[in-house]
TrEMBL record:
Residue ranges constituting the ABM domain according to the UniProt record: 2-92
InterPro entries named in the record: ABM_dom, Dimeric_a/b-barrel
Pfam assignment, any one: ABM
Molecular function via GO: monooxygenase activity
Designated name of the protein: Quinol monooxygenase YgiN
Keywords: Monooxygenase, Oxidoreductase
């Protein structure tokens, strides 16, 4: 498994609403066309209305690379910048958990 966590900070409330719309449109396409994307979740952060946290888990590195090459993801990556004031990415190495098989 291959994963990452991303913290996005939106510029303001209007940007956050537009970002959420972009995320919703992109998420529909991810669910419909990416079998190697195991988990792709988006969270609002309680008490921090401009922040969003994405948790992404892929079957393997190749599934992540396939995700990144998809037209809807490339569109998301190009469009998101206008709404954001910050992006932090943490690359994750899955050790264990419920609901996923861990291969070593």
């Amino acid at each position: 498994m291959f994963g990452l966590m991303v913290r996005f900070t939106c510029k303001d409330a209007a940007a956050a609403a537009a970002f959420d719309e972009l995320v919703a449109r992109t998420g529909e396409k991810i669910r419909a066309s990416e079998p190697g994307t195991v988990i792709y979740t988006v969270h609002r952060v309680d008490g921090r209305p401009l922040e969003r946290i994405f948790y992404e888990l892929y079957r393997d590195r190749a599934a992540f690379e396939a995700h990144e090459s998809m037209e809807h993801v490339r569109h998301f990556l190009a469009e998101r910048e206008q709404y954001l004031s910050g992006v932090e990415v943490d690359w994750l190495d899955l050790v264990g958990g419920k609901g996923v098989d861990v291969e070593h």
